[in-house]
Amino acid sequence: MSSDAPILEFQQVTVDFGDSLGLDNVSFQVREGDARIILGAAGSGKSVLLKTALGLLRPTSGRVRVFGEDVTDLNESAWFPVRRKLGVLFQEGGLFDSLTIAENVAYPLENNRKDPLPSTDVFQRVKEALEFVELGHTLDKVPSELSGGMRRRVGIARAMVTKPRLTLYDSPTAGLDPMTSYTIVALITKERCVHNTTTMIATHRYQDGHFLANYTYNGQTQSIEPRRHHGEDGDASTRFWVMREGRLVFDGTQSELGRVDDPYVAKFMKPRMDCNGN
Amino acid sequence: MLDFLKGPVFAIQEFFLLGAKAVKNIFRRPFYWSDLFVQMDIIGVGSLPIVLLTGFFSGAVMALQMARALSNYGAKEQTGVVVAITLVREMGPALTSLMVAGRNASGMASELGSMKVTEQIDAMRALGTDPVQKLVVPRMLATAITLPLLTIIADFVGIFGGYLVAAGILGLTGTQYWTSAWRAIEYSDILQGLLKPFVFAFAISLVGCYYGLNASGGTQGVGRATTQAVVMASVLIFILTFFITKLFVGEVY
User: Domain A1-83+194-278 maps to which CATH number in 3.10.290.10, 3.40.50.300, 3.40.50.2300, 3.30.310.250?
Assistant: First the structure.
């Protein structure tokens, strides 16, 4: 699944907020088709990592490469064409209150003035994206008319409408009930499988990563089903990271995560163990 | 001491950087025309009732107060002169701007602050839109266009309010009032009276946008940003009006 050239690369990246370090000497590579589950407590640097990858935060030191291009020193306007190739879902959805759902999802397409799409094509793409997240009936509603889970689903539709190669999800299930969280993670899994999108999810829920690593979307039956693993580590393209105080303290597969003794890293496995009654 | 000063100095630097970027972006593409017209409607048309009321009653009150003082010198018929000059030079621009600051600097701070804390500003940047271009430039230009127009309306309504008091209570004739008022106003008064709201417009809009874009800490932070924006915009109006007045009065003395 993975090709050789990394599509996202951090080299010793530090983000210094003055009174604390958002990221502390973080280095990694993400390749096409990979999935990364970024676990960590609140304030551990998960969102800072994603925002640095998007250029919303500037590294104090280190280098960032996106799609092979060194973007570390780009100014705001030079970032825009790079960001258009990325999909992003913010924690609260990040939908624009003043726009309808259709206008929100159309925004990334209509905002691309260098390569504009005809309005009929925009409408078609918006409809497809909203039907993908099973919200095709909400075109003319405004975000305040939708529930929290529905707003996240619209956020996913907006993130995928440009068919990005890399999509970043910032706490997609935070504050949602278990059933809605399942729906959101199932949609992310479906999006990853259907479009072969490289996926990075920042979350504090181990279950989100477990689902992404072990389930797949079957296009023929149009349903989510368990992934057929080859070998002990299962899906090798899905790796788990654990962040603590801005540092990447664990990088490994799901089974490696299960074998770690460090209490901080291991505590992210606890919910699963509790579910098993152990 | 140095740490204590660091915060305000950094804030002033950020404010001027935002202002410089907003002015520079006026000449850059894309220009969001529809946002400009929407903001002109919100700021200009939306502020009209409150500007009409304050303009009218400030003119009426001024006529009452001035007539009392002027009658001591047997110059009650000069009421129109005092009302017109005071309104056109000072009270019209200052009161209109204070009303617009109270209404719109708070509106901008709360709207942009809410967008900031709900990550809509980040989303905008992530989707390839410059928030300064999309949000700040239309608000700044809309205020700069509508505030001088609102001031003209407030000036006229204020002088009319003064006339109603002069004619109805003080017993002056319409000709006495309007002729003296008309003759009293010079071109430099009109220039001063229009320059002030134009300058205040930048202060009001940029202060509102600055506090909104820097809001943090959830809904409480939005409330704090809103209050700070109104207070800072009002204070800036008084400081700026002193310097602009000094500029014009300095020619005389």
Answer: 3.40.50.300
Q: How far apart are CA B42 and CA B150, in angstroms?
A: 13
Cross-chain residue pair A76–B125, CB shorter than 8 Å: yes
- The distance of B184 to chain A (nearest Cα, Å) reads 48
Cα→Cα distances B251→A53, B55, B190, B248, Å: 57, 28, 15, 6
Do A95 and B120 make contact, defined as CB atoms within 8 angstroms?
yes
B219 interface with A at CB cutoff 8 Å: no
At CB < 8 Å, which residues of chain A contact B? 51, 54-56, 76-77, 79-81, 83-84, 86, 88, 90-92, 94-97, 107-108, 111-113, 158
Confidence (pLDDT) at A231: 55
Mean pLDDT of B69-77: 83
Distance (Å) of CA B7 to CA B1, B21, B220:
11, 21, 20
Residues 6+ apart with CB under 8 A from A40: A46, A202, A204, A242, A243, A244
Range scoring the smallest mean pLDDT among A209-218, A234-243, A268-277, B80-89? A268-277
State the residue range of the domain holding B38.
Answer: 33-249
- Quick check: is B80 in a domain? yes
Of B114, B123, B128, the CB nearest to A80: B128
Question: What pLDDT sits at residue B251?
Answer: 58
Domain count, chain B: 1
| Domain residue ranges in chain A | 1-83+194-278, 86-163
Asked whether the ipTM of the predicted complex exceeds the cut of 0.95, the reply is no
pLDDT digits (tens, 9 = 90+) for A34-59: 899 999 988 899 999 999 999 999 99
Are A238 and A188 within 8 A, CB to CB? Answer: no
Say if the Cβ atoms of B130 and A107 lie within 8 Å. no
